[in-house]
Amino acid sequence: MHVAGSSSSGVETPLPSACPVKRSPNSPFYTPSSETTRQQPQEQASANTSGKSKINPLNYMFSFISQERAPTQTVDLPVEREISSIPRADNAGEKWEYPSPQQMYNAMLRKGYTDTPQDAVESMVAVHNFLNEGAWAEIVEWEQIFAKGLKSGWEKCRKGNENLAIELAKERLLCEKKIEDGEELEPCLVRFQGRPQDLSPKARIMQTLGWLYPAKFGTEPPFDRHDWYVSRRTPSGTTKEVRYVIDYYSGPPEPTGEPVFFLDIRPAVDTPTAAVERLMRWGGDVWYRASGGQARENK
User: Domain of 14?
Assistant: First the structure.
C-alpha cells in the first residue's frame, strides 16, 4: 500500500465507537459501535435487512450491523475491531473504532455488494483504516499550524515547507507533553459526512482545467469525498468547529502492483478565516522562495 500527495496527502457521527470514516447511502463502509452491537437482539438483525427505515437520515448510518457470519459466507472473517488514533469529541479520552472485517462484509451485503470477494475483505479494511489514519494526520497538521491563530500560522508558513515540517515536529513533541498534563486539548473528530456524489469546488475546478488542458491537468475525478467536522481549541480557551474537505483520488499502481491513493485535504472555505488559512498554507512556501529565503539558507 502506498500513499502520496502534498497538501493533497497521500495516503468517518454520532454513534458511539463507530468507524470514523463514513460514506454516502451508496457506500457500505459503516459499522456501528460494538456496544450497540452487543445490546441489539438477534431478531433485530434480520429485521434490519429491510434497509431504508433502519438508516439514520442525518449521517446514513445503519443502526445495527451484526458480527455474525453471513448465511452464504464461506470464508471465516475476524470480528476484532481496531482502535483508531482519532480522538472522539463526545467522549474525552476515547478513540474512534474501526469496523471488523466481518462487520464490513455484512455491511457490504446489506448495501447490495453481494459479489465482494470474501478473501479480499481483510485487505479492504486495512486500506480503509490506513487512509483514515493518513487523513487524520494531515488534519492534525493543519490544526497544529492554525489553532493558535492566523498570526502564529503565518509565522510558521512563511518559513517554507521544509522548515515548517521541522518546526511542526518539534512542536508536536511539546504538545504531546501538554496534552498528557491536561494543559492543552488535542483536536477531536465531532462528526462526518460522506458525499461521493458531490464534487467539491476544488475538484470541479480541476476537472474543468483537465478538460481545457488535458496534457497538464487531466485526471480522473475523485472516487470519494468526505467532510470531517473537527473540534478546535482556540487561543481564548473556547472551542469551535472546523469543517475539512477530503477528496480521494486513485493513481497509477506501483510497479509492484500496489495501489496508490492521493488524499487532498484542506479546511472548507466556510469562513474568511478558513480561506486565509488555505492561502497562507499554500502561499507560504512560494513567499519563502520568492523572498530569497531558500537562497539565504544555501549560503
Answer: 2-147+187-268
The pLDDT value recorded for residue 52 is 46
Per the CB < 8 A criterion, the answer to whether 187 and 232 are in contact is: yes
Q: What is the pLDDT of residue 263?
A: 95
C-alpha cell at 73: 459466507
- For the cut 80, the answer to whether the pLDDT of residue 137 exceeds it is yes
Rounded distance, CA 58 to CA 227, Å? 13
Instruction: Read off the pTM.
Output: 0.76
Residues pairing with 4 in the sheet: 262
Q: How does the average pLDDT of the chain come out, rounded?
A: 79
Query: Taking Cα atoms as reference points, which of 50, 81, 48 lies closest to residue 65?
Result: 48
Q: At what angle do helices 121-146 and 272-290 cross, to 10 degrees?
A: 80
- Neighbouring CB atoms inside 10 A of 129's CB total 17
Cell numbers for 33, please give them: 459501535
Q: Do residues 21 and 29 lie in contact, with contact meaning Cβ atoms separated by under 8 Å?
A: yes
pLDDT in tens, 196-208: 889 999 999 999 9
Per-residue pLDDT of 24-38, as tens digits, reads 443 334 444 444 444
Q: What's the one-letter identity of residue 166?
A: I
Q: Is residue 196 part of a domain?
A: yes
The structural domain count of the chain equals 1
Distance, in Å, from the CA atom of 242 to the CA atom of 75, rounded to the nearest integer, reads 42
Provide the strand spans (E) within 42-166.
Answer: 83-87, 95-97
Report yes or no on 154 lying in a domain.
no
Domain annotation covers residue 98: yes
CB crowding 205-238: b at 16 or more within 10 Å, else e: ebbeebeeeeeeeebeebebbbbbbbbbbeeeee
- Cell 501538554 identifies what position? 178
Q: How far apart are CA 173 and CA 178, in angstroms?
A: 9
Any idea what DSSP says for residue 220?
A: P
Q: What are the cell numbers at 234? A: 482556540
Residue 256 lies inside a defined structural domain of this protein: yes
Q: Which residues contact 213 (CB under 8 A, 6 or more apart)?
A: none
